[in-house]
């Protein structure tokens, strides 16, 4: 009653043993593919971690760098500006990690929060009545009167260019892991598991436990079993090319590091623009939001929480160099994995599975 290891000679196998052999080949195949995938997966996971660590380091530097602008140049609003700055960098981080948000919404939300502070602390420093309604009116008015001129739009454009490549790279790396995991757990068809049993275990039924499959026979069986995996070859090559393109984009004109550190200057230019146009802005705001209560003299800048100046430039340069080196190492490694899916059958038939240095081997039916 054997279904797979049928042979003219007497056999020491039973149908139950054939079933055990089928379970064994399925388990072994998964383990073999996992072993092949391990290095590649380890490299991608390692790069995701290194990329995120270097990125977080740059982000912290850029946030401190931006906060110190308010501490040094705009002390009257430094304490209140801390929260909008923090929110802006949180939004940027979420965007790069793939959240459903845009750079434009993050930047404009920041400038919406910034305008009430610029208006009440710098343009009209005597304002005392900054009620919720008045603050909200200032936020909404910002969108119509554009107090920050072209600088808010310029900041959106610059950041969108550089952050796009980082976001895509982050998503592409996660996709790579997904593809590898899927190939590891691709189910073997019944025909495939029977072919693998015939190749690896049917000789045992004849007492031939030391005979291994012939190389050509192994390749035929593996290619048949892994046809669906090798079909990924073209897409995998395209995927590697896309990774190469994205890492080049990040390192070229859309440099993430330059864009993040440029946020401070963009905000400074925007605030200066608003201050220069203070009288016109005040006239428009008075018409739309009414006149708030005023007090003589400037607002005290006591109890401002000082922003910790980073030992910054050096830390930044190290993070910058680290990110560039990681990109280069990673893409060089990935380029070597271009043929990963095309050559998977050859790699599985390498090593201990087949007979290479022997005159006899198993061809699926007999020893040859």
Overview of the structural elements:
The protein is mainly α. The chain has one domain (21-291, 312-349). The chain contains 14 helices and no strands. Helix 1 runs antiparallel to helix 5, helix 1 (15-73) packs across helix 6 and helix 2 (78-96) runs antiparallel to helix 3 (103-123). Mean pLDDT is 84; it is low at 296-310.
Give a nutshell description of this structure.
It is a lipid-anchor; GPI-anchor. 70% of the residues lie in helices and 0% in strands.
**Inertia-based shape:** rod-shaped
| Main pleated-sheet profile | none
Structural class: mainly alpha
Look at the structure and give the mean pLDDT. 84
Got a strand count?
A: 0
Helical content (DSSP H or I, runs of 4+) = over 70%
Q: Compute the gyration radius: what is it?
A: 32 Å
What's the domain count?
1
Query: How far apart, in Å, are the first and last alpha carbons?
Result: 26 Å
**What share of residues are in beta strands?**
under 5%
**Could you list the spans in which at least 5 consecutive residues all have pLDDT below 50?**
296-310
GO biological process, one term: positive regulation of canonical Wnt signaling pathway
Pfam families: Glypican (PF01153)
Membrane topology: Lipid-anchor; GPI-anchor
Protein name: GPC5 protein
């Amino acid at each position: 009653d054997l279904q797979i290891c049928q042979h003219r000679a007497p056999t020491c196998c039973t149908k139950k043993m054939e079933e055990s052999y089928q379970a064994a080949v399925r388990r072994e195949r998964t383990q073999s593919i996992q072993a092949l995938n391990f290095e590649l997966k380890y490299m991608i996971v390692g790069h995701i971690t290194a990329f995120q660590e270097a990125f977080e380091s740059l982000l912290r530097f850029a946030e401190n760098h931006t906060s110190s602008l308010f501490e040094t140049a705009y002390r009257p609003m430094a304490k209140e500006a801390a929260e909008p700055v923090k929110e802006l960098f949180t939004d940027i981080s979420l965007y790069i990690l793939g959240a459903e948000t845009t750079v434009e919404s993050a930047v404009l939300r920041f400038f919406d929060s910034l305008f009430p502070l610029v208006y009440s602390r710098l343009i009209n420093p005597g304002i005392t009545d900054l009620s919720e309604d008045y603050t909200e009116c200032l936020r909404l008015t910002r969108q119509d009167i554009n107090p920050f001129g072209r600088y808010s739009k310029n900041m959106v454009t610059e950041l969108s260019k550089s952050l796009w490549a980082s976001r895509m790279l982050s998503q592409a790396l996660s996709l790579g892991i997904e593809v590898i995991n899927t190939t590891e757990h691709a189910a073997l068809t019944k025909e495939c598991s029977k072919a693998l049993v015939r190749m690896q275990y049917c000789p045992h039924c004849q007492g031939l436990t030391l005979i291994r499959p012939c190389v050509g026979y192994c390749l035929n069986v593996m290619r048949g079993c892994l046809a669906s995996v090798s079909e990924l070859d073209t897409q995998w090559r395209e995927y590697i090319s896309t990774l190469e393109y994205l890492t080049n984009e990040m390192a070229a004109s859309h440099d993430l590091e330059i864009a993040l550190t440029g946020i401070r200057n963009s905000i400074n230019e925007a605030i200066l623009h608003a201050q220069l146009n203070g009288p016109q802005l005040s006239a428009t705001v008075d018409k739309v939001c009414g006149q708030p209560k005023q007090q003589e003299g400037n607002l005290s800048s006591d109890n401002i929480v000082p922003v910790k100046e980073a030992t910054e430039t050096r830390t930044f340069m190290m993070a910058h160099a680290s990110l560039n080196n990681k990109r280069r190492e990673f893409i060089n490694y990935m380029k070597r994995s271009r043929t990963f899916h095309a050559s998977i059958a050859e790699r599985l038939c390498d090593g201990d599975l087949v007979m290479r240095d022997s005159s006899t081997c198993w061809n699926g039916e007999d020893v040859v």
